[in-house]
Amino acid sequence: MSDPVLVVGxxxxxxxxxxxxxxxxxxxxxxLDNLLEQAHPTGTARWLSKxxxxxxxxxxxxxVVDRVLDGVAVVFHQAGMVGNGQSMxxxxxxxxxxxxxxxxxxxxxxxxxxxxxxxxxxxxMVVYGDGAYRCEEHGVLxxxxxxxxxxxxxxxxxxxxxxxxxxxxxxTHEEHALRPTSTYGISKLAQEQLALVLGRAHGLPxxxxxxxxxxxxxxxxxxxxxxxAAIIAAxxxxxxxxxxxxxxxxxxxFTHVSDVVGANLAAADAPESALYxxxxxxxxxxxxxxxxxxxxxxxxxxxxxPTLTGEYREGDIRHCYADVSRAQALLGxxxxxxxxxxxxxxxxxxxxxxxxxxTERAHAELRAKNMIR
Length: 373
Prior knowledge:
The protein contains twelve helices and 19 strands. It is an alpha/beta fold. The protein has a seven-stranded parallel beta sheet, with helices on both faces. Strands 7-6-10 form a three-stranded antiparallel beta sheet, with no helix packed on it.
């Protein structure tokens, strides 16, 4: 019998899809998940295949981690707290779960280093903060600025840090400066760097995947702090207008969950030349948030236009889409699902759900803490 593969956070949105793909390849799969209520409102592993072995526990618990690592050669780390907004006030918990949890997992792996063939870690675009921008005079910038004074005047586009002219978005490469704008981003950067730095130092074969905006079936629709496509769908299914900050023209790189799973499998099988690098996992194409809302409404058959608040939320960025050339070259991976196709899958699944819409409650919490202006 083959050694089991471990998926930490395997009962969640991306993790459960990854488990399905691993099982389809004939792997034995073990899952560690704490079934956090915010992601699992039923308190159960609703989407996890019965063919996987589930251990309910926390990755900060060394004894539990030691137990689930027994016999494992490949570890996929998909666990963590997600969402910019909530992280701006729930600071300690985000840092504890994402950074300390990852440190606990890595320490346990290093104690039996020779056992592992590959460690694949889920990182995120949030490690960049804002994406890359191009200035007409100064070219692609190391840094663009969104000063508070401009935001208060509802001038949303960033400006060049050298000449203060407005700049335009460019594809963000993995070597772009890392300047996270939220506690979530800081904790994900810590998670990624712990894995890559310690992996290299100890010879633990590690790859980090920086997910862009993952969407698709099984997304946590009742979590009002993360997954903009799911939040929009939840609003529409409750006959309410999606609420979009700023002017709705923010650009994001929406990547279907099946492509994210494909990137994980490619990372697990990648040659040594790919080790100890971070990789963007995106399509390389951008979609405006307001157009995402309109597309989901169309696919759900709902005639409700989004509400553009003209406000901004602390921790948010303006634009980010990926340069995916490194993943193509070193992992042999490219996204296959265009947004126009992926949104059909999302809407088909979402139409059978009856999520509670908690958006207004979340926004009230953020307003009370002056995180929405």
